[in-house]
Amino acid sequence: MAGPDRILHLLLYPFPGSSHTIPILDLAHRLLARPGITITILVTPGNLPLLQPLLAAHPHPSLQPLILPAPPPPPTSTGTGPLNRVGIRVGEGTMNIPEAVELARILTDSVNGARPERVRAKEISIAALSAMKPEGSSDHDLDDFVKRISEVKMSK
Gene3D superfamilies attached here (predicted)? Predict the structure, then answer.
């Protein structure tokens, strides 16, 4: 238990997605209702735009984000993001959903293994499996990632 002169510092790391970040932020605010607690929330550059408005709306001096550095793209990357070009757009918003027959046609067409999106998804799958093997990029880049994390300074 934190005494009057001791501060408990919690580090929260939500899974990078709004369905995890928002509940963790809510938990942080509930914990900060108790005295003697400081909280750091780890965020990725991609999650920061989601988190910043929420932090600004409910500021607390004992709650700070710590932005994890984005790892450099792999040497074979096209620079457009590893998950880009694997989805098939079906509609725009809830008011522009295709009729059932058209939706069924799009779904049937989407599982065609020759579609560019399916080919790209397969390439990503193979690269991910290769990265996880010993001496893969996930294996040797982990040391660099840990080093970069340790060099990050918190903003006060």
Answer: Glycogen Phosphorylase B (3.40.50.2000)
